[in-house]
Structure to design on (211 residues):
């Protein structure tokens, strides 16, 4: 079966929601939607595309494409040398949070939900992760600010200057003397820009009502 969240969750039995409710602080009311009996069709892997993308990170994960029996193309990321069991458990916690929020009328009215994705560990260090389309990674958010306010290293030079097997004291010293100067703290600036842009957008929408 294609290892995507929507397909794996629909393949699970629905009795788990009742068990979650026993430990929930929310009160189930009459407006709580019942689980739909509609099941998604099971889509199995038909083939794997020959093309793949190597991502620019230290572990060099690869994005591959699976062809499903329905003819569609599904993207997943193969991540080596990384402990994914904690990520998988964290996704389980997020799914439980979604189940609890579905049981609360106010949470449903506000459409509160946590976006989940499939994480499948295949060994002690490595596994596959569902690829989320239109997702901006953390580095992609901060890189423009790093280039504006700092002096970021090229990818090749960054990895060349970093030795993961060196003593912890040497790595800390290199971080303080080299990387901290080139990568200043910019996350607060990003939040200020987001708040400013959102406030301008809301103001423009309000002004357009009176035009």
């Amino acid at each position: 079966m294609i290892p995507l969240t929507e397909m794996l969750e629909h393949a699970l039995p629905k009795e788990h929601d009742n068990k979650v409710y026993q430990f929930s602080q929310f009160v189930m009311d009459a407006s709580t939607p019942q689980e739909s009996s509609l099941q998604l069709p099971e889509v199995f892997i038909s083939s794997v595309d020959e093309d793949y993308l190597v991502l620019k990170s230290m572990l060099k994960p690869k994005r591959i494409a699976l062809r499903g029996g329905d003819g569609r193309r599904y993207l997943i990321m193969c991540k080596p040398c990384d402990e994914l069991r904690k990520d998988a458990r964290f996704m389980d916690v997020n799914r439980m949070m979604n189940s609890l929020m579905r049981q609360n009328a106010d949470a449903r009215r506000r459409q509160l939900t946590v976006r989940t994705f499939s994480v499948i560990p295949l060994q002690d260090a490595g596994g596959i992760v569902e690829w989320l389309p239109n997702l901006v990674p953390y580095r992609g958010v901060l890189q423009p600010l790093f280039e504006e306010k700092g002096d970021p290293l090229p990818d090749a030079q960054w990895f060349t200057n970093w030795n993961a097997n060196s003593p912890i004291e040497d790595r800390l010293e290199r971080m303080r003397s080299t990387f901290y100067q080139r990568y200043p703290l910019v996350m607060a600036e990003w939040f200020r820009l987001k708040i400013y842009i959102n406030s301008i957008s809301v103001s423009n929408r309000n002004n357009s009502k009176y035009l």
